[in-house]
């Protein structure tokens, strides 16, 4: 539907689905149901993680509550500026809760390391991260991530929530972007 903009499909819709089921099973084991901390709190990092969050929450066999936070470091460029801005903060206090940050991708790691530092000052009982994608070769800061779906090459990818200049989020798969689009 985007003409020749997508150079190749990196991860298919079926592969995403299978991986989410696998991740959900692993994550659920770490959070006993009926814990004194209450239901697991999933924090979706808008906008990129929106589709992953909704599919992941429904695949998890434990009760969860959903919160949303919007941060932005990219603007419309293809590389991270490292400057993170809160566009929308949490509505709720997370003190004493089991919190799981849900991200679509860790690229330089700057967004997530900033976010983890920010959220840990709010005293959650636990704070972990699940990300669908990670680019090991692009990391610029070490960030501890409990659960990773796919490690991918250092190429610009779009789809399943990931955008270039706000486009392509609605693709059901992860694809590489034709360089002609951004050059
Ligand atoms: C993208 C992506 C991650 C972050 C990863 O978000 O969704 O949140 O960048 O990059 P990093 O590891 O280099 O920090 P973006 O800032 O583009 O906002 P969006 O989710 O609204 O697209
Ligand atoms: Mn994002
Ligand atoms: Mg983006």
UniProtKB/TrEMBL annotation:
Q: Enumerate the SUPFAM superfamilies for this protein.
A: PRTase-like
Q: In which pathway does it act?
A: Purine metabolism; IMP biosynthesis via salvage pathway; IMP from hypoxanthine: step 1/1; Purine metabolism; GMP biosynthesis via salvage pathway; GMP from guanine: step 1/1
Alphabetic keyword roster? Cytoplasm, Glycosyltransferase, Magnesium, Metal-binding, Nucleotide-binding, Purine salvage, Transferase
Signal peptide start and end residues: none
- What Pfam families does UniProt report for this protein, alphabetically? Pribosyltran (PF00156)
Return one GO MF term: magnesium ion binding
Major subcellular site: cytoplasm
Show the catalytic activity.
GMP + diphosphate = guanine + 5-phospho-alpha-D-ribose 1-diphosphate; IMP + diphosphate = hypoxanthine + 5-phospho-alpha-D-ribose 1-diphosphate
Annotated EC: 2.4.2.8
Q: Name one GO biological process term.
A: hypoxanthine metabolic process
Cofactors = Mg(2+)
Q: Name one GO cellular component term.
A: cytosol
**Where in this chain does the record put each Phosphoribosyltransferase domain?**
18-164
Does the record bear Ion transport in its keywords? Answer: no
What top-level branch of life does the organism fall under? Bacteria
Enumerate the subcellular locations listed in this protein's record, separating them with semicolons: Cytoplasm
Q: Which family does it belong to?
A: Belongs to the purine/pyrimidine phosphoribosyltransferase family.
What NCBIfam families would the database entry show? HGPRTase (TIGR01203)
Report the protein name in the record: Hypoxanthine phosphoribosyltransferase
- Give the taxonomic lineage as stored in the record: Bacteria, Bacillati, Actinomycetota, Actinomycetes, Mycobacteriales
